[in-house]
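Why do we bother with holo predictions? Because pocket geometry can differ from the apo form. Keep that in mind while you read this record for magnesium ion.
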Amino acid sequence: VRFDAGSGSRLGVIEGDRIADLTAADPVAWSADLAFIPRSGDSALGRMKRTAASAPAVELNRAKLLAPVPAPSKIICVGQNYMDHIREQKAEVPTTPILFSKAPSSLVGPGDPVRWPAGLTTQADPEVEVGVVIGRTMKGVPAAQALDFIFGYTVLNDVSARDLQFGDKQWVRGKSLDTFCPVGPVLVTRDEIPDPQNLRLSCSVSGRVWQDSSTKEMIFPIAALLSFICQGITLLPGDLIATGTPHGVGAFQKPPVYLQAGDTMRLEVERIGVLENPVTGGT
Ligand code: MG
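The structure, written out:
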């Protein structure tokens, strides 16, 4: 996790109801802002576990958890990647992944409010997704090796302004409004999720379930997606990949429903955790 317990952004490892404070144990190796992924990639895993074993602890309930990746060089997303989401739209099954991106400036952490400028959109809609964080520079990697390049997994909310998304010729504006990419609350390292294609994921808005599915529904599994992207685009350590959303988003409910000021979004992915954010709306 990245967290703030009153003295700025720090890195830590959650152990029960406490956080092992890596930054306090070794401020040079674990200086904030997740520079450790670019510096040491995969070998950070072993060092993290060794440092955590002797690090001072912070009470989890005294810390504010932050977005686990503060500044990815890019956030690459895939649209229409779940069979159940294709069926609800009566869309054609894509033969290659439909890629788009969200601006890194849209990132916020767990608990941070999602808002938009008054009048800009009336159709904000959440999307629960598995977020993949890259651990090593990745270019031209075949699918069979692609999972080895992952540092870990997080919960990602691909909040979308549907009126802007479908009104513009490209999706980037409707997907990139400030605060429209909540991530967290934790980054679960790859070794803890041997099979990312068998995870339940769900999204509730103010207590009502909108989405409830499984990563088994993915058309292009995570390994295939990463390989497809990195044939032509170098993925850098710390980059974030949004792997698509299942059925149940507000735009395709009958009648359609959208986020309102006062709502709370609760997104859960099995083995990763629960990401909650309040909606403060057009302010
Ligand atoms: Mg999405």
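Residues 16 and 60 are 8 Å apart (CA to CA).
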